[in-house]
Amino acid sequence: MEQTKSVSANDFEYLRQLVRDHSAVVLSANKSYLAELHLQPIAESAGFTLISELVAYLKTQPFNNLHVQTIEALVTNETSFFRDYHPFEALRQYILPELIKKRAVERSLNIWCAACSNGQEPYSIAMLIREHFPLLTNWSIRLIASDFSTKVLTRAEKTYYQ
Ligand SMILES: C[S@@+](CC[C@H](N)C(=O)[O-])C[C@H]1O[C@@H](n2cnc3c(N)ncnc32)[C@H](O)[C@@H]1O
């Protein structure tokens, strides 16, 4: 059973490169446990017994859905409301006040959360605006949320729009 879970240094190096090339996320070299934790179900659902068989397949095939699933499984989706203190403080104290000055004539703002995971980040921004910038009530605010993982976007839609 241990054998099915272990990931060789070579295979993990390939996986790190795959993730970096397609997401710009850099996994630390000592995080092979991530592959051991997350890739077994993907290997099995694709008909392999060992993670090493999955990696051998990925190495030899053109980029396809299995590469996508593998990358998504290795990139963390951790999120929470107001997850990091400093970016939200920077938004509140500096970025939004500056943008409000610059857009005073148009009275419109476009805000893009480019890696929104399950959606807590865009909702945190919406809450921050509502709480601290009442003058924006009459502005046109467009909050766009995207992520390269369809899994998290589906979860975000289910949680917030049903
Ligand atoms: C750690 S979560 C952070 C979510 C949110 N920004 C927050 O701070 O709460 C990282 C998210 O970035 C997404 N991601 C990573 N690389 C990406 C890329 N190149 N393009 C779009 N989304 C990406 C992942 O799918 C994941 O949902």
How would you describe this structure to a colleague?
The chain has two domains: 2-74, Chemotaxis Receptor Methyltransferase Cher, domain 1 (Orthogonal Bundle); 85-161, no CATH class. The chain has nine helices and two strands. It has helices at residues 2-5, 9-23, 32-38, 40-45, 51-60, 65-74, 85-102, 120-132, 150-161, and strands at 108-113, 140-145. Helix 8 (120-132) links the parallel strand 1 (108-113) and strand 2 (140-145). Helix 2 crosses helix 6 (65-74). The protein is elongated. The mean pLDDT is 93. Residues 23-25, 75-79, 83, 114-117, 120-121, 147-149, 152 line the site of S-adenosylmethionine (SAM).
Brief descriptors of the model:
162 residues; mainly alpha; Chemotaxis Receptor Methyltransferase Cher, domain 1; two-stranded parallel ribbon; elongated; binds S-adenosylmethionine
Strand pairing plus helix content: what structural class? mainly alpha
N-to-C series of helices and strands? HHHHHHHEHEH
Q: Please, how many helices?
A: 9
Largest sheet: 2 strands, parallel
Shape: elongated
The protein's oligomeric status is: single chain
Number of domains: 2
Q: What does this entry show, briefly?
A:
With 162 residues, the protein is mainly alpha-helical.
Please render the helix and strand layout as text.
Elements: H1 2-5, H2 9-23, H3 32-38, H4 40-45, H5 51-60, H6 65-74, H7 85-102, E1 108-113, H8 120-132, E2 140-145, H9 150-161
Helix pairs in contact: 2-6
